[in-house]
Amino acid sequence: MIELKPLIYDKEMLNRIASERNKVLQNLRSTWVTEPEKQREWIMNMNPDTERYFYVFDMEAKHIIDNDSFLTIDNEFIGYCGLDKINHIDSYAEVSLLIFEEHRKKGIGIKAMKKLLKYGFDYLGLHLLYVNVNDIDNIFEFWEKIGFQKEGNLKFRKKIKYLYCDVISASLCKSDWKLIYG
How many domains does the chain divide into? Predict the structure, then answer.
């Protein structure tokens, strides 16, 4: 079972996010290196009116934490996701997702996104969620599986290692989401 928990300041988890983001910069909408020491600033400056981020946990997987004098078993932290650029007037937001490498290709990202979509559509009452995906490595196929529909290509929008690539813009509206997921 996948669970989303609100992103709060936790140095260890935020450092893991920074490390994982820096491994896949070419796949992210922002291609600057994430500095672990800047993570606290990012969390403290987060505006809940325009952005909501969540840690993704696998509630069935457990890992052991050794705290010198005792061991604790905790649910496994496997990534993060969020809604960004939330526009309450026009009722839309951009979605983002990063599942750590060792947990990819297991259906976890789809489960996390289903929960995030439900949060965006049902709890926040948004009408549309969108994503901009770099047109490399067949990343868009993931978003199609969830129900996002391609709106178009933004030509040469992203520079990756001296080459420019297109960005695919896609969206999912609430009515289509209800048809797909009930």
Answer: 1
Is residue 128 within 8 Å of 174, Cβ to Cβ?
yes
pLDDT tens profile 121-154: 999 999 999 999 887 777 899 999 999 999 999 8
Rounded to a whole number of angstroms, the CA Rg of the chain reads 17
- Sign of the alpha-carbon torsion through 140, 133, 115, 55: positive
What are the two backbone dihedrals, phi and then psi, of residue 37, each rounded to the nearest 5 degrees? -70, -15
Task: Note the pTM of the prediction, 2 decimals.
Answer: 0.84
- Write out the residue range of the structural domain in which residue 167 sits: 2-181
Could you tell me what percent of the chain has a pLDDT over 70?
85
Distance CA 14, CA 17 (A): 5
- What is the 3-state secondary structure of 122-178? HHCCCCEEEEEEECCCCCHHHHHHHCCEEEEEEEEEEEECCEEEEEEEEEEEHHHHH
**What is the Cβ-side half-sphere exposure of residue 136, based on CA atoms within 13 angstroms?**
16
Instruction: List the CATH number of the domain containing 38.
Output: 3.40.630.30
Between strands 92-99 and 128-134, the pairing is: parallel
Query: ∠ CA(41), CA(117), CA(172), 5° rounding?
Result: 110
> For residue 61, which amino acid is it?
A
The sheet carrying 163-173 orders its strands as: 2-6, 52-66, 71-87, 92-99, 128-134, 163-173, 149-160
